[in-house]
Amino acid sequence: MRDPRYNKGLAFTEKERDAHYLRGLLPPVVLSQELQEKKMMNLIRQYEVPLHRYIAMIGLQETNERLFYKLLIDNVEELLPVVYTPTVGEACQKYGSIFKHSQGLYISLKEKGKILETLKNWPKRTVQVIVVTDGERILGLGDLGCQGMGIPVGKLALYTALGGVRPSLCLPITIDVGTNNEKLLNDEFYIGLRQKRATGKEYDELLQEFMYAVKQNYGEKVLIQFEDFANHNAFELLARYSSSHLVFNDDIQGTAAVVLAGLLSALRLLGGTLADHTFLFLGAGEAGTGIADLIALEISEQNGKPIEENRKNIWLVDSKGLIVSSRKESLQDFKKPWAHEHEPITGLINAVKAIKPTILIGTSGVGKQFTKEIVEDMASFNKTPLIMALSNPTSQAECTAEEAYTWSEGRAIFASGSPFDPFEYEGKTFVPGQANNAYIFPGFGLGVIMAGSIRVHNGMLLAASKALASQVTEEHYEKGMIYPPLTNIRKISANIAAEVAAKAYELGLASHLPQPEDLVESAEKCMYSPVYRSYL
């Protein structure tokens, strides 16, 4: 009863109560899991404040694991914004105040030289997925230090609920190297190291010890997902460890795959191929450059031209303006491939007027950047402009669904990072797309695990994007949707897992041999079920 993995609450049967000495420890009524689910949903809906709903869900996860996942799977559209973005952002900001039970592994500078020993303290010997953060860039909220743990916990809950990876095989980790957030350093309830962030050699040595300790303890095939690292570290870590470890960065690769899927499905509404379109990004960090790279890679797959040539229709704007070749000397390495020949331009509005993009994508982490003038300009030179305001949480979105539809006179296709409600414009109801990474990473992770892949390859990301795009039907297009509804997410994840696994086998990266004949069926069979088990 006190172990969340086994606890069923009032659903223990009369025979189970006798067999396991539970008689008298519970009220006499026996409830079904379905009735428990109904009761819990009624309770959660009574909370008007999203953070209170989050606390209730985490409380349930800590006491009755199977009921938690049953709720999440059966009510995914309602509860996903509660356990993940946007509510998880506020939860991380207040994590010290709401912290009750430790849900993952904390590795701080205090553990330097003892990380392998620390990993062995985790009670599960077998781990297949690790989500790790250092808390430096949590969503669009900045440095939250040790309190970033809400992100790995939330992501792994989705690995289980949406991708069917068993919760016992998941390990959330926060690496605490300090924080530069003065507010947290002065907060008496802060749960992390009270020091400025370690950088340079000290940081690199800790991360290197961590990566090799993980491989030593859990083997070659544990998937390590980097989450919410600052730009400079995110690119560096992915480049450094992608050839020696099974690593995946959701902010760079997951975001890119889900956005590419939206673009591929939007082509049915826009017409033409990706190569026929002009892309303009606001934001040239992990998400922006990651998406741009995957778009260029997919165009190269389609037309056979070098990736350098296919980058020419993809433009990026950062805080200093349009990224052009005259700025190349001062640019960070990951921005340099996007420095094209053009006169310098400052300000997004001027870039929109000069480049005349067909597709506008926001990954800036700064809200309200797609102004009325910008959206009206997009609508003036495009019959159907595609506007993707991807920054999270909702408060940081570059524009709202209502603004995009109204300012474009109902002609825009709109997608965002956080959810927006359907919007009616002149008698037509538009359903905004949500370019949520939750579409990709759970199915992607399941596919990697199924195949026993030893590395992540870009071909697997392209396979995941195409699998997601293929799930959008004519019925969805009629409502302006470029992503399928999240209600079918387990079916979607099984299809993504099958395509990712197939690509791993094709590339010779899979170790689970022979390859199953029906990979979709194989994915569905190995998915975790939250239905209560009998203990007789």
Automatic annotation (TrEMBL):
Indicate the residues that form the catalytic site: Y84 (proton donor), K155 (proton acceptor)
Q: Which Pfam families match?
A: malic, Malic_M
Annotated membrane-spanning segments are none
An annotated GO cellular component of this protein is:
chloroplast
Q: Where is the Malic enzyme NAD-binding domain?
A: 252-505
User: What SMART domains does this protein map onto?
Assistant: malic (SM01274), Malic_M (SM00919)
User: What keywords were assigned to this record?
Assistant: Metal-binding, NADP, Oxidoreductase
- This protein's source sits in the domain of life called Eukaryota
**Cofactors (names):** Mn(2+); Mg(2+)
Q: Which GO terms describe its biological process?
A: malate metabolic process
Q: Where does the chain bind (S)-malate?
A: R137, N392, N436
User: Per the record's keyword annotation, is Metal-binding included, yes or no?
Assistant: yes
Coiled-coil intervals: none
Q: CDD domains attached here?
A: NAD_bind_1_malic_enz
Per its record, what are the GO molecular function terms? malate dehydrogenase (decarboxylating) (NADP+) activity; metal ion binding; NAD binding
Against NCBIfam families, the record matches this protein to: PRK13529.1
Q: What is this protein called?
A: Malic enzyme
Which species is the source of this protein? Answer: Gossypium mustelinum (Cotton)
